# Entry
Amino acid sequence: GCKMKKLLLLMLAMVMLLSGCGMKKEAAAGGLTCTLSISCANLVDSDVLAEAKRPLVPDSGWLLEPVECSFEEGESVFDVLSRVVRENKIHMEFVETPAYNSVYIEGIGNLYEFDGGPQSGWMYCVNGEFPNYGCSTVKLKDGDVVEWVYTLDLGNDVGGSMAGK
# Structure
């Protein structure tokens, strides 16, 4: 439906986004680890957000600064995000579409899709690449860097563009 189309558009935009979207990390002894962060930096100086939502945006732009997380073989980006937001008491809302084996993240930290305008919402990248798949289908590998970013313009404001597509 319409939501799926929007998700695909958003994911396509993400694929073309941020090329250097991460930082190196030291390999932890034993176990599988990844780095996870959640950023709404482009909402910091933006005037599109409703006044009531302003206090939800930290001055730093980080809802969660890059943090190292351990995970089990076979876990997805969504599995780790769910656990980390729960551990850090960060609100998250999502829609599961079992038919597509897909999860769509609607809101993190009470910041939702469309809060920043009609083309805004949450996107994610893994090692600088924006997967064209739902976060529940992307399996993590040791050392992955996962970044969740809030876009105001289908990714254009975070380094990607749908132009000419």
